[in-house]
Amino acid sequence: MSITKRINFWDILLDLFLLAVAYYITMRWLPLTNQEPFEKYDEIFLFFIVCWIGGGFLCLRYRKEKEVLSVLIFRSVFSALLVTFYFLIILPFFQLIDLSGYSVYVLIIIPAITLFFEITMYAIRYTFRSIEPEPEVKDISAESLLNRISPLLFQFLEKSVPIQKDALNITDSTNVLSLFHLENKSHFLLLDRFNRVKDLNLFLAMINQKLFNKGFLVGSFETKNARKKRILASRSWGMNYIAYTYDYLNKRFFPSFYLTSSLFSMFYTKIDKVFSKTEMYGRLYCAGFEFVEDCKIEGTTWFVFRKTGKPKRYKETFTGALVGLNRIGKNGKIFTEYKLRTMYPYSEYLQKFMIQQNKLQEGGKIKRDIRVTRIGAICRRFWIDELPQFINLLKGDIKLVGVRPLSKQYFNLYSPELQQMRIRQKPGILPPFYADMPKTLDEIQQSEMRYLQRCEQKGVLKTDFYYLRLILNNILVKRARSK
Question: Is pLDDT at 161 greater than 80 in this prediction?
Answer without folding.
Answer: no
